[in-house]
Amino acid sequence: MKRTTEEAGKASSNHTSQTAVHLSKGAWVMLVGAFVMSVLSGVLTAFQVNAVLIFIVAGVALALLAALVGQATDQLGTYLGAGATGVLQSALGNLPELFVGIFALRAGLIGVVQAALVGSILGNSLFVLGLAFFLGGLRHGTQRFASDAPRMIATLTLLAVAALAVPTLVNQLHTPAAGHEDGFSIASALILLVVFAASIPFSLKGGPTKLPQEHKETVFAWPIWLAIGVLVAAGVGSAFVSDWFVSALTPAIVSLHISATFTGLVIVALAGNAVENVVGIQFALRNQADYAISVILNSSLQVALGLIPVLVLLSFVIGGAHLTLVLAPLLVAVLGLTALLSTVIIYDGESNWIEGLTLIGLYGIIAVAFWWG
Questions:
Q1: Which residue from 280, 269, 255 is spatially nearest to 59, judged by alpha carbons?
Q2: Cβ distance 63 to 272 under 8 Å?
Q3: How far is CA 67 from the centre of its chain?
Q4: What pLDDT, on the 0 to 100 scale, is given for residue 130?
Q5: Which residues contact 173 (CB under 8 A, 6 or more apart)?
Q6: Confidence at residue 90, expressed as pLDDT on a 0 to 100 scale
Q7: How far apart are CA 366 and CA 191, in angstroms?
Q8: Per-residue model confidence (pLDDT) at position 87
Q9: What pLDDT score was predicted for residue 280?
């Protein structure tokens, strides 16, 4: 009888732990902040307030919503396992950027979308990785990491970037395939998605896209209903906020006197990844370089293998401008330089602050190059 009572008590305790809500202070701040900024951007849009203000508020809301999607996916992964979480993160991690891309394409802002997609890869592989190396190097000196997983991620990214560059070369070199950009882009997108699908079993076995276990153990566990609810709410919120953000985009560009390409390459790209990539920098500051590089480089890989081909295919369905992989030559050049430099730097399994400063410096030079258009 006593054992039965104890077992019942344990079952009740386990049920309580599954239903009770234990959120960290940071999670509460993120939830409240995302809700407030999303509602505020909607109110400002409804009352047609200054476009620059709407652009800024909606951009902050998007950054917070992107972080919420990432955190909710991570929490949901505690119930699904590390491999499945990696797949979920690859599929849903760029949800806000996907909605921004869809609404921007429907508005005919194809140049902004192309620049934003390239900017996401540049921002992760140069700016964020550079910050992680720089700050981690200043605090801990030379940081060492197991290079096998980063090499695999970097190689896949390099291959994806090469695949993205070929349609532009075909167009610029006037090969027989020139004039068939739509069909060529669709074929390239399908091939990239096949590569992405082929990487899923590797991820399920705990490959380089696996999430850091040590990080998960330090996070307050959410009940599964809360993780799903936050994921759905953040996804729906992202759709609305993306629409308001894109509506204010063109008037804000005109008011601020900045080029559409610079806006997409730097502002829009960083808005979708700003808060989420703070995690990678925090890992570097804790001298957990393996986790830092995995988180940061995986973001670039998800954009190159997942987000870009999905947007290409969707653009032929949703109406508006068709997104092709024929980019401005300078965009292709900086994309290739970025993939090459980040691969070379991580190949030796070591990083220091001067390498981080080099990456940040290259990002700054590229940003300035696109300031005028």
A1: 269
A2: yes
A3: 9
A4: 92
A5: none
A6: 59
A7: 29
A8: 60
A9: 79
- Write out the two tokens for 244: 């308001």
Length of the chain: 373
Selection from 259, 266, 257 nearest residue 366 by Cα: 266
Compute the distance between CA of residue 204 and CA of residue 212 in angstroms, rounded to an integer. Answer: 14
CA distance linking residue 303 with residue 286, whole number of Å: 26
**CATH number of the domain where residue 236 is located:** 1.20.1420.30
- pLDDT, residue 17, reads 45
Provide the whole-model pTM. 0.83
pLDDT at position 24 is: 76
The secondary structure of residue 325, as a DSSP letter, is S
pLDDT of residue 89: 65
Determine the Cα–Cα distance for residues 250 and 316; give it in Å rounded to an integer: 23
Contacting residues for 1 by C-beta, under 8 A, at least 6 apart: none
Domain that holds residue 195: 2-369
Domain count, the chain: 1
How far is it, in rounded angstroms, from Cα 88 to Cα 90? 5
pLDDT of 162: 85
Q: Give the amino acid at 48.
A: Q
Residues in the chain with pLDDT < 50?
A: 1-19, 206-218
* Nearest C-alpha neighbor of 138 from the set 353, 355, 358, 360: 353
